[in-house]
Amino acid sequence: MFNIVLYEPEIPQNTGNIARTCACTGTALHLIKPLGFDISESAIKRAGLDYWDKVKICQYENWDDFLRLNPNAKCYFFSKKAERVYTDVKFENGDFLVFGKETKGLPDELLQANFSYALRLPMREGVRCLNLSNSAAIALYEALRQTGFDI
After folding, report:
1. Given the DSSP bridges, would you call strands 3-7 and 28-32 parallel, antiparallel or unpaired?
2. CA distance 56 to 3
3. What class is the 3-146 domain?
4. What are φ and ψ of residue 17, in 5° steps?
5. How confident is the model over 3-42, as pLDDT tens digits?
6. Element at 118 (helix H, strand E)
7. In sequence order, what DSSP letters do the residues of 119-147 get, joined into one string?
8. 3 Cβ partners below 8 Å, 6+ apart?
9. Distance, CA of 136 to CA of 151 (rounded, Å)
10. What pLDDT, on a 0 to 100 scale, did the predictor assign at position 94?
11. Are 128 and 87 in contact (CB under 8 A)?
12. pLDDT band at 43, cuts 50/70/90?
């Protein structure tokens, strides 16, 4: 099983789309606070997210809390600032795919501290970035492809 980590996600629709992808693939979803939206049970019901109960969701107060609770996590950090392309690594079951917030990406200090594990999705110059849910799906499905779609 793979893990998707969203660092301070801001847009509920992106997180909802990623949660649906996680439900379909058996992927755990890790959310690092603060979140830009409410994911209480009543908010989820109002949004009609009938697949939410099919996703393993873990929430953390901050990055340090995430590290404390996942001490052996092998993380890949996705950023347009990375030099390596996401297809240049060999993913393994249990890996954590980490994505930053929609407006700013990952914090520079976190990215620089983990730059040897930073990956990018190729894009044309002059375009800001792909949508967060699209990026997460592309990366996750490459990891699943590499491991034989063991869903």
Report:
1. parallel
2. 10
3. alpha beta
4. -65, -40
5. 999 999 998 888 989 999 999 999 999 999 999 887 766 6
6. strand 118-120
7. EE----TT-----HHHHHHHHHHHHHHHT
8. 27, 28, 29, 30, 73, 94, 95, 96, 97
9. 16
10. 97
11. no
12. low
